[in-house]
Amino acid sequence: MNIRDRQILQIALPSIVSNITVPLLGMIDVAIVGHMGSPVYIGAVAVGSMIFNLVYWLFGFLRMGSSGMTSQALGRRDLTEVMRLLVRSVLIALAIALLLLVLQIPMKWAAFALIGPTDDVAPFASTYFNIVIWGAPASLALFSLMGWYIGMQNTRIPMFISIMQNIVNILASLTLVYGFGMKIEGVALGTVIAQYAGFIVALGLLTRYYGRLFQYFSKDRLFSDIRVFFNVNRDIFLRTLCLVAVNLYFTSAGARQGAVILSVNTVMMQLYLFFSYFMDGFAYAGEALGGRTYGARNGVAFRETLNRLWLWMLIVTTAYTLLYIGGGKWIVSLLTDEPQVIEASSDYLWWIWLIPAAGCVAFIWDGVFIGLTATRGMLVSSFVSALCFFAVYLLTEPFLGNHGLWLSLVIYLSMRGVLQTIWYRLRIINGI
């Protein structure tokens, strides 16, 4: 194993562990409320989690923008800019969180109007929202810190924080629900406590391992490059809107075809998520290493890193494809025991065989483009690919039905990778 492979795995493997722990926060809440004696509690957590997942996903640019710009500054050995980026990103995250707190009532109305929870679920979902919204400062600031850590080539700290948050969430929620007799309030408070615990630990680790770097911080020009910061993050935000639009439409289009098809699509999408947890780890390696070598203007190291990333992409994609071909039915049976869903999934399972190959290239390019802060290419490719998704589905749905929906998704994922490859060759490669 050469030095590039070791560097990639040192970043990718902790990131993969972190990614796997992310859905556990929501699963823990569902598991606890699932034993409260009424399905309305499960519905309330499902609605509340959906709202915050969507909101925080939209502000994911705080992490992605921080990692790319920080890794480039580190590559240039510009430690003053490294620290300015940290402080700037955290301050912007806290400002956005303050805005969310101020606008929480109209935001809740809009979210409930979009999701449409039933009358019995809505009051409990409202209670959950009213409590968890106060975790926004910790969550958004943590996005900035996580991105900065990745830019500093350190994914072990984000991994530790993710694991710690889950442990705190379990202990806090169980204590509040079973120790103090709370219901939905205890689960919501447990989530908020875990969020602030993660933020506090992130700050503590920052002081311990990077405290010496604060000597390089200067308030001068703290916001002088704010335009560049927002240009980069604007592109990431708009690109995320494209992804959200596709994902929401995929879910709603499946729902219009009945409960069985919706369940089939939901279960099969979990297989795509399992693949994405691993590929995101290598995307993070592309962010950190690609940005650092680009910032150092080391074209040889950059190309070596990129070539090794393609090799790891091929290994992971092949492994997942073979796993889904050989064990897809078994995995579906683990995720659900509903006979109708298992039977119906057999007609569509072969689509999931294509998902790893269709999406793998876009995962790697997303990481590399973030590291290079070439976010305009991400936006353009996502926008054009989203248009293709909607066009293909509208044309094929009348005679292909749900197969048309999966065909649209496969084309959408493939198009992102193809367009980013073209963008890289036309707009980026000559500058490296």
Mean pLDDT: 90
Order of helices and strands: HHHHHHHHHHHHHHHH
Give the total of beta strands: 0
Decide which structural class fits the backbone: mainly alpha
Radius of gyration, CA atoms, in whole angstroms: 22 Å
The coarse silhouette is: globular
Percent of residues in beta strands? under 5%
What are its keywords?
mainly alpha, globular, 432 residues, single chain
Write the layout of secondary structure elements.
Blueprint: H1 3-33, H2 39-58, H3 61-75, H4 79-102, H5 104-115, H6 122-132, H7 136-151, H8 156-179, H9 184-210, H10 226-255, H11 259-295, H12 299-335, H13 339-345, H14 349-371, H15 375-400, H16 402-428
Helix pairs in contact: 1-2, 1-8, 1-9, 1-11, 2-6, 3-4, 3-7, 3-10, 3-11, 4-7, 6-9, 7-9, 8-9, 10-11, 10-15, 11-12, 11-13, 11-14, 12-14, 14-16, 15-16
Describe the structure.
It contains 16 helices and no strands. By secondary structure, the protein is mainly alpha-helical. The chain has helices at residues 3-33, 39-58, 61-75, 79-102, 104-115, 122-132, 136-151, 156-179, 184-210, 226-255, 259-295, 299-335, 339-345, 349-371, 375-400, 402-428. The protein is globular, with a radius of gyration of 22 Å.
Question: Would you kindly provide a brief summary of this structure?
Answer:
The protein has 432 residues and is an all-alpha fold. Helix content is 85%, strand content 0%. The model has no long low-confidence stretch (mean pLDDT 90).
